[in-house]
Amino acid sequence: MLQKRKKVRLTGKPLAKLNNDIHERDDHTCIIDGCGRYVSDKEKFHHEPQGNDKEDRIECGALLCYKHHIERHRGMNSAAIRQQCVDYLQRKYSQGYIAGINSLLPNGVRKWKKEDIYSVSQRI
């Protein structure tokens, strides 16, 4: 029987620290290709995956400018922005993260494989 993994949900100072850490990691800049807009410390990071499956972990958060954040949640380019967020986070983090995130991705979003990580890490 599979054990349920407890979701990480933070509040107060731990959440503020996580938000700051993600801003620093992403250089206060929207991660969407070609955007480069500055993202203020006062703006909260975007969770990927979003919704009921979201967790407050650094490997599940990315900076999006206000325009892309709204578009990710409600826009016509939501799937493309989701894919860019997933690809960005997958480049940053380990195979274990990828296995977990792949299990949460909806159908139609390209899943990553172990080989993808090795090819990315060789390019970096």
Structure, explained:
The structure is a single chain. The chain has 124 residues and is mainly α. The protein has five helices and two strands. The radius of gyration is 14 Å and the shape is globular. It has helices spanning 12-25, 66-74, 78-92, 95-104, 114-123; strands at 46-47, 61-62. It has a two-stranded antiparallel sheet. It has one domain (12-123). Helix content is 47%, strand content 3%. 21% of the residues are buried. The longest helix has 15 residues, at 78-92. The N and C termini lie far apart (39 Å).
Per-chain topology:
Elements: H1 12-25, E1 46-47, E2 61-62, H2 66-74, H3 78-92, H4 95-104, H5 114-123
Antiparallel strand pairs: 1-2
Total domains: 1
Q: For the largest beta sheet, what order do the strands appear in spatially?
A: 1-2
Number of helices: 5
How helical, in percent, are the residues?
Answer: 40-55%
Using the alpha-carbon principal axes, give the shape: globular
